[in-house]
Amino acid sequence: MGLTWNNGAGLFIANSGANNVLLLSANFTTLSVLAGNGQPVPSTGPALSSGLPYPRALVFHPTHASLLVASVTGMFELTLENFIPGR
């Protein structure tokens, strides 16, 4: 399970067991699925309806407001403009 923090958004969690990425809000009150439909088969499309196979590591890119997700099949970039206040 990979973790990374962003002061504006909160804690991003690579949840390999459920094939998704979670976001725990900065005030620790809300846990949301950010990406991944639970299937271990890679696919393209909207983040919540796409497969994200076994995400392992996360890196937040503040300049691009994106999250790089490493999985067993490659690297994915998630645009996070809707999840970060002030963006």
Could you characterize what this model shows?
By secondary structure, the chain is an all-beta fold. Helix content is 0%, strand content 45%. The chain contains no helices and 7 strands. The protein has a 4-stranded antiparallel β-sheet with strand order 1-2-3-4, with no helix packed on it. A 3-stranded antiparallel β-sheet has the order 5-6-7, with no helix packed on it.
In short:
The chain is an all-beta fold and 87 residues long.
What descriptors fit this protein?
about 90 residues, mainly beta, four-stranded antiparallel β-sheet, three-stranded antiparallel β-sheet, 7 strands, globular
SSE topology:
Elements: E1 2-6, E2 10-15, E3 20-25, E4 31-35, E5 57-61, E6 66-71, E7 74-79
Antiparallel strand pairs: 1-2, 2-3, 3-4, 5-6, 6-7
The fraction of residues assigned to DSSP E strands is: 35-45%
Largest sheet properties: 4 strands, antiparallel
Strands side by side in the biggest sheet: 1-2-3-4
**Given the helix and strand composition, which structural class is it?**
mainly beta
Show unreliable segments: none
**Rg on CA atoms, Å:** 12 Å
**Shape field:** globular
Counted beta strands:
7
- Whole-number total of structural domains: 1
Measured as a percent range, the helix fraction is under 10%
**How many helices?**
0
- How far is the N terminus from the C terminus? 27 Å
Query: What does the oligomeric state look like here?
Result: single chain
Mean pLDDT: 85
